[in-house]
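User: Continuing from earlier, I have the next pair ready.

Assistant: Great, send them over.

User: Here they are, in order.

Assistant: Folding the first of the pair now:
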Amino acid sequence: MLTKDPRVLESDAYTVVEFFRAHGFSDQQISDLTMKRPTLYLFNAHKIFKPKLEFFRSLGLSELEIAKILSTEPYILERSLENQIIPCVQELRRILGNDENVLKAIKACYRVLECKVEKVLQPNISMLLSCGVPMSLILKMFLIQPKSMLMKTYRFSEIVDEVMKLGFDPNNLLFVLAIRSMAVMSKSLWEQKVEAFKSFGLSKDEIYAAFKKQPMCMIASENKIRKLMSFFVNKLNMTPSMISKNPNLLLLSLEKRIIPRCSVLHLLISKGLVKEETSIVYVFRMSEKRFVDKLVSKYQNEVPDVVSAHQGKIEFQGFPFDLKI
């Protein structure tokens, strides 16, 4: 902390700490904001911070929510209430229509309170409108992932152009989801993920075809992509093209969903209770409730190990046959 700002030694740190405690901050949250922004100890807490906390409460945020926001993003406390925070909220209210949506945006991306919204968000909205994207989809995108709409206009324009070239329909939700996926990573990270897919035999055309079907498939980390692809190809004997045709598989958790369900299916097939022709993709797509009802609860008296398999306690070695996709 002192390497960041040694002036803290000359501040009235005790008063600032007590101020945060009195306003619902836990000791851990105070520690977090201290390490992130020790400069806060140089401010008069009652004069500078209190009006901001009161303003956030007037928006409908609870004391616990305010503490969470400010301990995560303490830089907000250094922003001017009159020149930055209030104008930002007013602009968000104008664009989003009501305070409920404003709160959703703030909770989804705390840093929105630090942006010059009218200089960043409005130009990006105008760009999407000019491409034929309905305002309803723009607002949906912003409320899901505000960060993607708060990019510098030149970079946002590049992404929109790329999505248009790929042939996405501006009237379809997939259009804004594609923008969102591209917006949350750098160009170099995007290329690293493309190379990860290529290393398993997928062509660039197949990768982008999968992206067009399910834009969120590129959100997964490079490590997750490699782990999932390796499991599908090496353990389930799926061809890479099968995966590119079913990109929703790349949104699933390997440890929590895919492996336990494979273990359950393997156990039930080995007991002759489920046919080998069962579609593995269908099994993966089932809701948790339907999967438990159809393949766990139904057979747990007859095959008690099915519960352990579903809990991930039985190691999955692979199927001795090729499953139907």
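And the other member of the pair:
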Amino acid sequence: MSLPPEPRANPALVGQDEAAAALDAAARAGRLHHAWLIAGPEGVGKATLAYRFARFLLAGRPRAPEGKAPLFVPPDSAVFRRIAAGAHADLLTIEPGTLQGDRKRSDVINVEAARLIPGFMALTAAEGGWRVVVLDGAELMNPAAANAILKVLEEPPPRAVLLLVSSAPGRLLPTIRSRCRRLDLPPPNDAALLPLLGAWLPGMEAAERVALARLAGNAPGRALRLAEGGGLAVHAMVEEVLAAPEAKRAMATADKLAADRQGTSFALFFTLLRRAIAEATARAGRGEAAPGWVAARPLADWAGLWDRLGRLADETERLNLDRKQAALTALSWLAAD
């Protein structure tokens, strides 16, 4: 598997040329909006685009060479290298875990981190250009953090841009959303994504890469994470237990999930199981064709099971409970009439 670089160091932009062109045009129009909400499904390249735009602004808004996507900055440039290393004085990144030290959590941006943003944006640019803040996972701000950035959104300093990256923009305060210019990123199409998966996963059969793309909703980052976690195999397990939730299958499935000591397969199994239930019940609720197993119980029961499975997975990970027993519990719920 050939892993791509992290977003701040990734020179490639897959399937998002239209969004990049919109940012390029806005930057060259002379009155760049001070806050952008870059929204879209998980793994479609939102953070990659945010850092690409940051490089473009901090490098002086260079014109992309022929054949290159908008906002291109060459990887050998000093600006690209410093941003990749997290060492550019005019770029601030805020994400879950910032300023939390030993209390680092992956599910929250706290007020101490958010309070860095107004002061940073108000400073004069160290290199005479722009100040840029990338707020990655903006929906994970707690209420105090969200309130801490409102003033800078209402009274933005000159030549400073705040880029909010969010997979769940509906969770942001309406007062934040209303002060941002929104840019929605769709998943790339097959023509853009499948060659990329071929480069990342050269050992995988072409048909499997297509199946992986479908499972990931054509989101490149999600596809890669699924591939790393054996997503196709876990998905097959989910389909098996939903189609035939027999007690005799439960032990073998639980053993497979427990064999992964890192817990990746366990977490992915619950994620894909709940996604399958949500998608199937939604189709059934709209009167569309749905898998046969949906008819085994009322739709309201499936909704309740979806919620119980989420709480079980969360408590198992948060309290470090026995994963095998948790899997057996979940499978017993599926098998119950």
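Worth noting for the second one:
The mean pLDDT is 91. The longest strand covers residues 160-166.
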